[in-house]
Design goal:
30% of the residues lie in helices and 20% in strands. By secondary structure, it is an alpha+beta fold.
């Protein structure tokens, strides 16, 4: 039964903060007059934040042992309207699975987020997230199917190489909860040709080795700031000044508070009213500050 599933208090606290910060925000549609900047479009902003917390709980529980990942999906007409629960991109031996074979978290339906698995499972979680957040997480973890991995060579798989991914995901979620203007993507296309006179930052950062579709990075967007963080926490690429990008090595993965502070710095997040109580006073820069560029 779901009562036997352990829920970390951190996720409950994240959910409570998400409700506080997002509950009064209106849905945002893709701007007709500015279609090139659709990043904030989503049918339900509170469900989006709650979806990230639920996704982080699933990743923390299921990624290390079952390679279950949860990917935000951007729909060209509705914006950020779902998360795919999948291991298609996290395990090479399961790359033939349908992307939604482990379920979908829908953000635009009634009582969202709503978790479904095909036609057999439908679990509305919106009300439960607001009234009993621990139970909402517990029921989702109980409902997510996680059969054993196929036997074979998993040395090339993300779930083997990215041991720190749950920590990175948890910190990214923490920032999304506290900064409603922050958007994170996981499905990125890296062009091997120049676009608008410049190569993609990750194409240059990897020495032209990364091209095409990748799921190995978070792309974090906050206003004009863009930061790329590899899911294993071993690389971060960010814009120090317009047109000038820097890549640094391993992040402080053994200290989530320090990792959060580092991301706040390069994203130029500021404002004590948006920071969590435990993060205030940890040296986050003022909103007008610039990234230091130090690793």
């Amino acid at each position: 039964m779901s009562a036997s599933v352990v829920v970390e208090p951190h996720f409950v606290e994240q959910m409570q903060r998400a409700i506080e910060r997002y509950r009064d925000l209106e849905p945002q549609s893709i701007p007709v007059d500015d279609p090139e900047t659709p990043e904030l479009a989503m049918p339900n902003r509170l469900a989006y934040a709650l979806g990230w917390v639920l996704a982080s709980a699933v990743v923390g529980s299921r990624f290390p042992t079952a390679a279950i990942d949860v990917l935000p999906v951007y729909h060209p007409e509705h914006g950020w309207d779902r998360f795919l629960v999948t291991r298609r991109v996290s395990c090479a031996l399961h790359s033939d699975e349908p992307a939604d074979s482990r379920g979908v978290l829908w953000l635009g339906e009634e009582d969202a987020p709503v978790f479904t698995v095909g036609q057999s499972v439908r679990l509305p979680l919106g009300t439960l997230c607001r009234t009993e957040p621990a139970e909402a997480i517990r029921r989702l973890l109980y409902a997510v199917p996680a059969p054993r991995l196929r036997q074979g060579d998993h040395s090339r798989c993300a779930h083997t190489r990215a041991e720190a991914y749950p920590t990175v995901h948890r910190v990214v979620t923490d920032l999304i909860v506290d900064y409603p203007g922050l958007i994170a993507a996981r499905e990125l296309f890296i062009d091997d040709q120049q676009v608008d006179g410049a190569y993609h930052p990750l194409y240059l950062a990897t020495g032209a080795k990364l091209e095409g579709w990748t799921y190995d990075y978070f792309q974090l967007v906050y206003g004009d700031q863009i930061v790329f963080v590899r899911t294993d926490g071993k690389l971060m690429t960010y814009e120090r000044a317009p047109g000038t990008w820097r890549t640094v090595g391993e992040l402080p993965l053994d200290d989530p508070a320090a990792l959060r502070a580092r991301l706040c710095e390069v994203l130029r997040l500021g404002g004590a009213s948006e920071a969590t109580p435990e993060a205030q006073g940890e040296g986050e820069p003022e909103e007008s500050g610039t990234a230091s560029g130090t690793s």
